[in-house]
Structure formats: C-alpha cells, structure tokens
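wait is this the right file?? whatever heres the structure
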C-alpha cells in the first residue's frame, strides 16, 4: 500500500447508522470467520470468577514503606503475568471521568452532519472514523470512533476536536492533563520494577516530549453480536494505554492462557495495559497482551482509550541494562513512526505485528 494513500478504499458506512436503521441482520462485511467469533469454542469470556488484578494506588506516594512496597509488587506481578490491570484511587478526579464519558456520549448522539464535519482519512486517522486499516474488502469491526492528538503540542489542534457538546474541548483538555500525570506516575513504577532508575523508562520515551492521543470508541447495539466484534484482537502498538471503560456495559476481553476473559470494571477505575513499545524496551519482561471487544444486542457501549507513547522519531530498542549475553536483545531499533505505519497498513492482527519484529536467532 502506498504510504501516501490519502483516502479510504471504499465508501465509509457509519456503524451507528446501521444500528439505528433497525436492521435485524448485520451486513456480510462485519461477519467474522467462524474461529474469530466471540461464541467459538465456548470461550465467550463468561468466566465470572476471573478478573484482571485491581490495584489501589492510594498509598503509592505516602510514607508507609510497607504499603508502598506492596503496591509496587502488585504492579510488577500484573505487568509480568497479565499485561493488564485496573487502578483505583489513582489521582484522576472521578467527576472528570464521568464528565468525559458523558461529553463523548453526547457527541456520538449528535446529528450525523455535526459528526461528519470531523470525518477522518487514513493519512492521520484524526477525527471521526469507522474503520482501521486500508485493505479493500476487509472484514470490518462493529464500531465507530473518534481519534485526536493531545501531545506533542504541535499536533494538538483544537479545531479537530469536537465543539459539540459545548464543554467537550475543555473537558478533553483537563482529562488529558490528569491522565498524562497518572501515566507519568505509572512509568516511574514500571521503570523501578524493571530494575532501572525511576526516570529511565520515561527518558527512553523522550522525557517530557512524549506522544499522547485519545481514541474514543463507540459500539452501537448489534442485532447479531455472536457473529462480529467491536474491535478485532490486537495488542496496542504504543507505550501504555489508560482505558476509561463504560461503567454500565462490559465488552473488553483479554486473552490469557488461550481463553478470553471479560474484564469487569471497578467503579471509577482505569484499565491499564502494556503496549508493544514497552514490550520492546523491557526486552519482553513485560508483554503487550492481545485483547478484543465484544458487542451487545441490548446496549450501546462507549470507552476512552488514552495512549501514552514514545516521541515518534526516537529509535525504540531493548534498554541496554536489560540486555545480557544470557538475554540478548530480542528486537531491532525502530521508531514509533515506522512501527505505526507498519500497523496502519494492516489493521488489527493479534500479536503478530510485534512478534514479526523479533530479531532472527
């Protein structure tokens, strides 16, 4: 695919419009192959006894050394064994979390002409979208989204942020500021747990010059949720993802030991997961984990994925301190820009993207 590909290969259909049209069967374009459907092999993720770890961060920066060590250890175990965890008492205002979710719900329920004014293209993905990847004839996911840049400042363009509802831009700005702060605190924890200095991982991202962007996912009601997915299996290409899930409707599933586990969100929790760039930097001590989204016939669902990424033009490779003769570097250096281009041409493809980078042995 030509790097300068400017537009989508076929007309864009908004999934929300399909859903609201009252169809009782989904178009063939959204029907997944049998092995990829959520109902296949009985692994629809309905194991009620299992959930990703929930970690209370309230003692992380206090004076209780034992509590501090316990939280650090919980994060370490979650990163090594799960690649996913939830955080509560994380320092982001619960009211702001609710306001952000509500503002975006209002945007997605705005008239189509309001949303279409922000329609995106594959060149940057920024704006209102309905597909990932530019393969003509690809099987599509049952969801619409809005993608915008928060950092670095030259990419932050308020004109590309929704002006509907009226408080939307203000809420997004404050939300981004607080979530960037949380991400920085978590980066310190991850860095120390890897045996590095507390700023080493952050410095590998570019210090203060990181990238950050927001993808708001809107999954409309689906008449045949057992045949499709809201988002196909993938690992996140960036550094770390801070997800604000829907507090009313489950949908995120994480692959563990070959099974799909449905994440049950705790009240006002964020779901944190390791992205491919931290897998590379940690030389696979921490691994990005495949996840997907299932949809629902009775309820729509909204989620906000905030991506905390390395500066786009810094070569990312395993940290020197984590490479030894016994543990050689698993990945060659590649900038996040180069990696993102590689991903965008192909769309979500499980874990094969980052695995394809591995240096030949």
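ok assuming it is, sequence goes like this
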């Amino acid at each position: 695919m030509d790097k300068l590909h400017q537009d989508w290969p076929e007309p864009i259909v908004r999934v929300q419009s399909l859903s609201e049209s009252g169809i009782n069967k989904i178009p063939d374009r959204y029907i997944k192959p049998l092995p990829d459907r959520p109902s296949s092999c009985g692994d629809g993720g309905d194991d009620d006894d299992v959930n990703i770890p929930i970690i209370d961060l309230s003692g992380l920066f206090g004076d209780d050394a034992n509590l501090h060590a316990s939280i650090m250890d919980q994060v370490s175990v979650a990163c090594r064994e799960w690649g996913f965890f939830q955080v509560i008492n994380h320092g982001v205002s619960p009211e702001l979390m609710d306001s952000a979710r509500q503002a975006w719900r209002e945007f997605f329920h705005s008239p189509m002409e309001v949303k279409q004014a922000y329609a995106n293209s594959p060149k940057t993905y920024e704006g209102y979208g309905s597909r990932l990847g530019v393969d003509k004839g690809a099987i599509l996911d049952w969801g619409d989204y809005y993608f915008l840049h928060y950092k670095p400042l030259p990419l932050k363009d308020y004109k590309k942020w929704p002006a509907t509802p009226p408080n939307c831009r203000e809420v997004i700005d404050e939300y981004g500021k607080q979530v960037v702060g949380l991400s920085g605190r978590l980066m310190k924890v991850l860095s120390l747990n890897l045996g590095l200095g507390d700023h080493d991982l952050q410095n590998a991202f570019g210090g203060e010059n990181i990238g950050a962007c927001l993808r708001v996912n809107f999954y409309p009601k689906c008449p045949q949720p057992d045949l499709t997915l809201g988002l196909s299996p993938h690992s996140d290409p960036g550094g770390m993802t801070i997800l604000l899930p829907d507090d009313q409707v489950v949908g995120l599933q994480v692959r563990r030991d070959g099974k799909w586990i449905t994440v049950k969100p705790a009240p006002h929790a964020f779901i944190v997961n390791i992205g491919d760039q931290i897998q590379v930097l940690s030389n696979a001590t921490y691994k990005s984990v495949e996840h997907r989204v299932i949809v629902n016939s009775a309820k729509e669902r909204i989620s906000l994925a905030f991506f905390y990424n390395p500066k786009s033009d810094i070569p990312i490779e395993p940290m020197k301190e984590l490479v030894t003769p016994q543990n050689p570097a698993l990945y060659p250096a590649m900038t996040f820009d180069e990696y993102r281009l590689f991903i965008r041409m192909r769309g979500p493809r499980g874990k094969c993207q980052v695995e394809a980078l591995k240096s030949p042995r």
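The mean pLDDT is 92. so i think its the right one actually
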